[in-house]
Amino acid sequence: MSDDQVSRSNGRDTGSVAGTSSGTVERIEERTGEAANGNGRDAVVEGEPEDIPALGPEELKAAYRVMLTAREVDLREIALKRQNKAFFQVSSAGHEAVTAAAAALLRPRTDWVYAYYRDRALATGLGLTPLEQLAASWGAAADPSSGGRQMPSHFSKRSLGLTVHSSCVGTQFLHAVGTAHAERYLSRHRIPGLPAAPNGDGIVLVSGGDGATSEGEFWESLNSASLRRLPVLFLIQDNGYAISVPVEHQTAGGAIAPLARGFPDLRVLECDGCDYEDSYRTLQEAFDYVRSGEGPALVQARVVRLLPHSLSDEDRDYKTAAERESDQDRDPLARLRDRLTASGAATREELDGLRKRTQAEVAGGGPAAPPPPPPACGIGSPRRGRPPGRNSTVSESAPRPKWRRRPPMPSPCPGPTRTPPATTSTARTWILVPRSSRRSPGSPRMRSRARWWI
Ligand SMILES: Cc1ncc(C[n+]2csc(CCOP(=O)(O)OP(=O)(O)O)c2C)c(N)n1
Ligand SMILES: [Mg+2]
Question: How far is the centre of ligand 2, averaged over its atoms, from the C-alpha of 42 (Å)?
Fold first, then answer.
């Protein structure tokens, strides 16, 4: 959907989504339960471009399977966290439609993907299995991302072109632009020792939240991508919050798309990220533009965060009951389920059966199945060494490095020579003395001066 086809509404699609019979959705709804009143967020976009055909029932069912799997993995991880078997949980519930659509449009092993922690449906659609995802939750060596050392939901797998990323929000944008630049450069120039182009004609999808667009890296990357007309698609999942900070308090004007429109050659589009078909159409237009080589694109997808920021957060402290309830009304999984049953593409029984099979697959052998083994060098171990993962040079049988105390550092400066100023204050004040000075021979002098100088 192009940006001139977007119209702002009061954010409520009251048609068919409320009162869904989906059990997965009901479980998420159980945490709320107060009357819906609307949260005033713009959500629904109208109009359909006529040149892009509607999706067929099989494509919609395939999308539903991906979204359902992602939701069930989230629910399983929440259960494991409550049993203290997973050490962290950050949910993608509410973000599944637009991310599943992105996965359907990507070419695995050709395109590059820089995901973020709400991209479970994207990772699932690309081929990251539920057990591979849960291995990260357990901190297990089988986790393809980091061998169990990264936080859960930091989806990556080399063979899928799903790159590893940091927990610092926004860092992925620059990595994505660098990759696009390298991809294009290597497709035009030969560098001895490097392949002609890592992936041939691959493009780069980078995904992030509305809050991450406040980071400098985001603007640096937009500038570079626009300047060089790089093949990057920026997918911004706007759920209205950066943890507890509403987007209106974080982003000038409350939305990123209008701010990005000044960049030359950057195609800026918006969509209802809770609606699979609208997301698919909009992303298809963006992908086509980026693949044509004309420049980068940015899609702002309006989504909802159906659960708190993470399981360590309490959204009742900053979202009203009415807002939480109206978020549930936009649940993308329930919407697609209703769409499938209303159009006759699937029956309720069929979808219930699919859900049972998905739950069994996610449980991976039943709820009592023991978690896979943790990494050989456990998290929290006082010993240092690289994990025995794919890229490691340390084998499990190699002797472990010995723990030793670092030698004291020489004092970086001998200390000032001037007389400390006279003070009339009798208040006691403190400063932090650097660790190196505390260990250095000059440290008693520095500590005594510190008392005079504040
Ligand atoms: C550089 C940096 N600053 C702050 C944080 C803490 N933090 C983690 S997630 C988050 C919110 C990000 O919000 P948004 O980009 O909208 O993504 P959402 O969680 O809403 O999907 C923040 C501030 C961080 N991880 N990195
Ligand atoms: Mg957000």
Answer: 14
